[in-house]
Known about the structure:
Helix content: 25-40%
Order of helices and strands: EHEEHEH
Distance between the termini: 39 Å
Number of strands: 4
Number of helices: 3
Strand order of the largest sheet: 2-3-1-4
Amino acid sequence: MSAVAELTIFPLDKGVSLSAHVARVLAVIRRSGLPHALGPMGTCIEGEWDQVMAVVTACFEELRKDSARINVSLRVDWRSGPGGRLEAKPASVLDKLDGPHGPHAPGKAGGGT
């Protein structure tokens, strides 16, 4: 079973530049050992439900140390079955887009380079 969570978390009382605080949260995620991917608007984390929720809580607790107000946005896709979806889901879409039968495949109108 696998949960893929997209977490966006940041303090609301630290001014305009928040990258130092986001880096603190990313350090917590890295220490968890769970597969993750940093994006421009959040970080995706994959693991068992309890593992992922423990990391989300740890991220909150890290910011709570010196923040009076924290914004948290969490989306989770849970699915029974094997993990590895953090890489497999985007790869599946790109395969359909760029693969041998996708609309951008070589030889198709407007496709290929």
